[in-house]
Amino acid sequence: MKILVAGGAGYIGSHTVKELIKDGFEVIIFDNFSTGKKELITGGEVVEGDLLDKESFRKVFKSHNIGAVLHFASLIQVGESYVNPQKYYLHNLISSLNLLEVMLEAEVKNFVFSSSAAVYGIPEQIPICESHPLNPFNPYGLTKYFVEKILQDYDRAYGLKFISLRYFNAAGADPEGNLGEMHEPETHLLPNLLLFLLGEKENFDLFGVDFPTSDGTAVRDYIHVTDLAKAHVLALTKLLTSSQSEFINLGTNKGYSVLEIIKKTEGFTGRKIHYRTMPKRRGDVPVLLASKEKAEKLLGWHLYYSNIETIIETAWNWHKKIVSRKS
Ligand code: UFG
Asked: What residues make up the domain containing 114?
């Protein structure tokens, strides 16, 4: 039995492929390489194709015994999703519908979905548990919300079993140094800070200093990408053994403000970060903090790498490596 990983050449997908292979799973990576990178492939069979072109992956299901699908392939920029919602509905929603259609044709009924804390919108309670009301308010979050609703209907009607993993803020890089974050353009906090320190960005902009938080900057729950990847292996194993659909948060239950991350990064690197203060980005919420109880209880999940120093250290090592490779 093989595991199809859609978007397996992306940031979180590639770290998960590495963990799956370590755990003895046979993996097929399906990626259109629009944002995925060949250099983030550390093993498995690779099929290049696009989820908007059903024929490009229908044949994969016909020629292999696929036992489950992990679906990472998605666009992730909240800001862009306001400016170009059509792109998001096409690449995050229609592509997911296509994948599910072909899975059902092939009678593959195990699905692990990359969802997001964005399904909650502005939280009413902190920490956020999975039963928190869902109020996504940006097109990106809506695409994740719609797929979750579709999955519930497909479970009821067709017996499709799924685990939808709601990620908080993925950060850091493979502790062995082989993988890391490579978004283009980069919009995330920690890589932007590190790329600025490495001279790859002219300025670092701090977006929003008037949030209702203790220092006015937004608070996020940063989870190390390897811990996130390990949760996928546990979720897949759970799905294959218990056949029960679930929604599960993946976060640490600990938050850091943007200013705290800046201070921690300065402390770790020994370099001062002179930042520009900018207005809030559209769609940014003041605080996102996960309850991790369900992931721990249901999956037996533990955090190994998610303390903030390890997150910064692994990300720093990765960014230094890719910057030096360029020169
Ligand atoms: N920030 C800055 N400067 C930057 C980058 C980010 O000040 O250069 C701030 C943001 O405004 C925000 C915080 O740092 O307040 C965290 O921003 P990120 O972009 O790192 O993370 P987000 O919480 O905005 O995004 C996360 C995921 C996205 C996902 C989104 C959905 O990383 O991929 O949640 O809620 F789309």
From this structure: 2-171+222-250
